[in-house]
Design brief:
The complex is a heterodimer.
Chain A lengths: L27 E5 L7 E7 L2 E12 L12 E8 L14 H15 L10 E11 L4 H15 L9 E8 L2 E4 L3 H6 L2 E8 L4 E5 L2 E2 L3 H28 L11
Parallel strand pairs in A: 4-5
Antiparallel strand pairs in A: 1-2, 2-3, 3-5, 6-7, 6-8, 8-9, 8-10
Helix pairs in contact in A: 1-2
Chain B lengths: L9 E2 L4 E3 L9 E4 L2 E4 L3 E6 L2 E6 L11 E9 L3 E5 L5 E5 L4 H4 L6 E10 L2 E4 L6 E3 L3 E4 L5 H5 L4 H10 L2 E4 L4 E5 L3 H16 L6 H21 L1
Parallel strand pairs in B: 9-11
Antiparallel strand pairs in B: 1-5, 2-4, 3-4, 5-6, 7-8, 7-10, 8-9, 10-11, 10-12, 13-15, 14-15
Helix pairs in contact in B: 3-5, 4-5
The chains are: A alpha+beta, B alpha+beta.
Chain lengths: 246, 224
């Protein structure tokens, strides 16, 4: 006799489908200065999500009429590789990628000290090599680290993470399956030292208490990512100790 | 006045450095009356200011910086000068073009007269030097102080050991003018060495040794 078994994303004892606790992130790896050809670069791995970010500039703004006389402009491109998802993704920029480029650019504009470089442009490229949920926040985390690696003055590093609502429970850093089947998904990015939220989107529904719980959970995750970013930046300096300057 | 960092401590952007806005030095910013780091780098106290020495940073021109640039355009009232990176400098030449006779592609060594919202303007008077031969190389602008050395000591070693004349621009461009390519290349490789080993002690001696070896080596190859 056959019985219909319901596929659950969270077990009775509060474990998720991949064995994580509700407030547990996927394993993270963050590195700075991974690409030689760009002025600054970073790499991030969150579970199966793998992203490179590269920064060029500041350089001349093109087309010229876009240049601002008192500050630099940011150009941001978030792009997913054709092989980053199951089945092939068309290699061009989709509607979604153009939108994410915009929200990431706006988040970064709030941390970069653009007034330092009038009439110039800073290009940021975020290339998703493998996607498994949370690419916009991971991309932003990598991009802010790449900016710091390039030596571009910023107010603070920023880090981002998604929180989701799965089977009525708030979870940190949802995976692809939880994202698809869950009730809500909320990417959050913050500049922790400034205490400001630079990106916040919400897909689905949450009550106000759930929202606050989710936000606090995101803050916790961002704190962890921020420390990893700082460590990655500090690593570059362990071999660099200048002496006897002018 | 409280300072939260030590000399040579590694800091990252957003890190609180001091409560005293007047102590804000290079690569820092003041927010709500406190001083924070704007780049990742190493802390250096100079003139009662907290400065950060970054591993790499884009060049930002400031007044009285000496620069090396390349003429890229001739306009009715000025020359446009490529300063490397994203920067274009303007060199006003009202009525003096006939005397200086600069052409597109010429390399010049001069001083920044003004840098601000209006752009970067260069000194066109007697300070301007036209460099008509030699070797032009580019290094990271943050390494320039090390190449100059304490009160110009490293520069002194580079030029006296090789007999070359050096024009060092704060923008990271360096022109080396010597009487033979071997000597110019010896200096260029020594500068590359300074750039990559700027953190190691005993650099001056190694630079001296390096140039001597290169120049003698060069002559031996030439004779053989």
């Amino acid at each position: 006799m056959l019985e219909k078994v319901e596929h659950r994303l969270i077990t009775e004892d509060g474990r998720r489908i991949d064995g994580r606790a509700l407030d547990e992130m996927r394993p993270v790896r963050i590195e700075a200065g991974v690409l030689d050809r760009s002025d600054g670069s970073a790499y991030i791995e969150m579970g199966k999500t793998k992203i490179y970010a590269a920064v060029y500039g500041p350089k001349e703004a093109h087309p010229r009429h876009l240049a601002q006389p008192h500050k630099a402009i940011l150009n941001c491109r978030y792009h997913m590789a054709a092989f980053s998802v199951e089945g092939r993704k068309a290699p061009g920029m989709t509607r979604r990628e153009i939108e994410l480029s915009k929200v990431i650019r706006e988040a970064l504009e709030s941390i970069v000290i653009l007034e330092e470089f009038p009439r110039s442009a800073i290009d940021i490229f975020i290339e998703v090599i493998q996607a498994d949920a949370g690419t916009r926040t991971a991309g932003l985390t990598a991009a802010s680290l790449a900016l710091a690696d390039a030596g571009i003055p910023i107010l603070d590093l920023c880090a981002g993470i998604a929180v989701g609502k799965v089977e009525g429970r708030i979870v940190l850093d949802p995976s692809e399956e939880e994202d698809k089947k869950g009730e809500a998904d909320m990417p959050v990015a913050m500049a922790p030292r400034l205490g400001s939220i630079v990106l916040l989107q919400l897909n689905g529904r949450m009550t106000s208490s759930e929202f606050m719980e989710a936000l606090n959970l995101a803050k916790k995750g961002i704190g962890v990512l921020y420390e990893l970013q700082r460590k990655a930046l500090g690593k570059k300096f362990t071999t660099f100790t200048p002496i006897g300057e002018e | 006045m409280s300072i939260y960092v030590r000399e040579r401590e590694i800091v990252t952007p957003g890190q609180l450095l001091s409560d005293e806005p007047r102590s804000a030095g290079a690569y820092t910013y003041v927010y709500n009356g406190k001083v924070y780091a704007a780049v990742a780098g190493i802390i250096q106290f100079r003139d009662s200011k907290v400065n950060i020495l970054p591993a790499k940073a884009p060049y930002k021109p400031s007044e009285s910086d000496t620069i090396v640039g390349i003429i890229t355009d001739l306009k009715p009232s000025h020359y446009e000068v490529d300063l490397g990176w994203h920067l274009v400098g303007f060199l006003h030449t009202a009525g003096r073009r006939a005397r200086t006779r600069l052409q597109i592609g010429d390399v010049i060594y001069t001083r920044v007269k003004y840098s601000g919202v209006r752009g970067v303007f260069l000194e066109g008077g007697r300070e301007l030097v036209k460099i008509d031969r030699g070797l032009l190389m580019r290094v990271s602008p943050v390494k320039i102080p090390r190449i100059i050395g304490k009160k110009g000591s490293m520069l002194q070693v580079l030029s006296s050991e090789s007999g070359c004349r050096l024009y060092v621009g704060r923008n990271g461009l360096i022109a080396i003018v010597g009487d033979s390519p071997e000597k110019e290349f010896a200096v260029a490789s020594a500068i590359k060495m300074i750039e990559s080993e700027s953190h190691l002690p005993g650099l001056t001696e190694r630079v001296t040794h390096h140039i001597r070896k290169k120049i003698i080596g060069g002559e031996v190859v030439g004779e053989g």
